[in-house]
């Protein structure tokens, strides 16, 4: 049996105690009206819910007001007007907020009939709750005086005393001036949450028969499809739920295509890159990843296992959720070891293009208020209309790899935002719009544990070194990461959300350096052939010299090898292109360095 929601229970408890209720949250959605005789529910607008509830309680008149339509119930308006004959009842006067607030105050003070006044879109009373004009202060002062004057009247049916009530419907309680409700014992805030699982299940069960193919289902299959539908719509409003049913009718989706319908509703496209990956390609994921990421066999195996879960739709199923991100990876290790390169390679593997990586440099989010950059500034603040960097990115490209680089540099409060994303696969931006992450892969990178600091002197030192074996490096870094989340920033719950998806990268060893060097040289040759139509041949003496210099200093990993190739090959090669007379289709052969001119190549053009 469906249970009443918390705000509904609280209203029943406090309606004889408080005079004013600020109702915030999911106020624009349909609300479940529960029939006590059979336990079924009917989704109805909030205004209709309040009308029914208050009418059953014995309130009469029940009056709705907004700044556009004025007072909505002409009969009730005439009744209230008897309390305030000085006010003209013409249309202009009924819409005027000044006259309306005075009329509300008079009605709330009347002991003739129990009255309920519902002010819809109460956030429109003032342009900014933190910067009220003199007139706006008067409006809220009248309403506050009305709230502080509890008055009872006898109901017509049961002849029991009822307290006159006033309701302010807003999206967020901070749309109302703080002084109106803070420390005011007559005012109570009720928060309407998104519909719970049992409510969504009841609505889906009632409408499932409208979909094609339902008639052929047995009870077990119907229950299975219904449960999946409920899980997929976690966090959605009832209006959105009805929108999915309408979409199914419009697009002729059958009951077996619920997942496609939800994706279409959320993202506006049904073609999922994840679903397009065939089993053979997924089985060969390690081979594909190792083509670009060298010397990190353990990291590649871990990434491949996450991709297997993602591509088979099995991420998060142990918790009964289908809405979590496709996967999460926490990549830790020394700089230049291939963490960012792995993220790009995964994007190329799944989406066919590494541009599907959206990177966030977390050093830009070191302040407590930096969450506004991610999710958007609050209403009324500068930049509100621009939205947040994260929410804009996932809205524009829901199928993607999200890379949060050097996560430890972000303020700890920013990390709290990831709790909901990793658990529920969604987050609400500053404008109240819900963004979904269920088609994205989330990757964090970190250098935690690589460098330590002496307590007494504050001097920094290297905690792991290349002469350590991989097992010792892995053990040291994982211990440092857990200490950081548990004790330094006290966010152990984030560790639980990431689970066993921590991947430690090894130092770049000489064997891997040779492979990385080949990748860099091949990249130079491919570019010259593609953009300049020049064939580049690198002879063994020069290649050997580059390898010696690469292995001489591996402290900066693969990035350091790339910098070395740029200095010793790309820069001199660019001088050759500028100074020499070459033609498309020619071949430039790099023999060695000029012995008497360091940094100058010995080459020939044919």
> pLDDT below 50 for ≥5 consecutive residues: which ranges?
84-92
Strand elements, count: 22
Widest sheet: strand order?
Answer: 5-4-6-9-1-10
Structural class: alpha/beta
Q: Largest beta sheet, briefly?
A: 6 strands, mixed
Strand content: 15-25%
Can you tell me the overall shape?
Answer: elongated
Distance between the termini: 84 Å
Percent of residues in helices comes to 40-55%
Nearest-angstrom radius of gyration? Answer: 33 Å
Distinct helical segment count: 25
| Average predicted local confidence, pLDDT | 89
Characterise the protein shown here:
By secondary structure, this protein is of the alpha/beta class. 44% of the residues lie in helices and 16% in strands. It is built from 25 helices and 22 strands. It has a 6-stranded mixed β-sheet with strand order 5-4-6-9-1-10, sandwiched between helices. A 5-stranded parallel β-sheet has the order 12-13-16-11-19, with helices on both faces. A hairpin with a 5-residue loop joins β14 (426-428) and β15. α23 (510-532) packs across α24 and α23 packs parallel to α25. The N and C termini lie far apart (84 Å). Residues 84-92 have low confidence and may be disordered.
What's the topology here?
Elements (H helix, E strand, L loop, with lengths): L5 H9 L5 E6 L4 E5 L6 E5 H12 L4 E5 L3 E2 L2 H8 L9 H5 L1 H12 L7 E4 L14 H14 L4 E3 L6 E3 L1 E5 L8 H4 L5 E6 L4 H11 L11 H14 L5 H14 L6 H10 L5 H4 L2 H5 L1 H6 L6 H15 L15 E6 L6 H13 L5 E5 L9 H5 L13 H8 L3 E6 L6 H4 L1 H8 L1 E3 L5 E3 L3 E7 L4 E3 L6 E3 L7 H19 L3 H7 L3 E3 L5 H23 L2 E4 L1 H13 L4 H23 L7 E7 L7 E5 L1
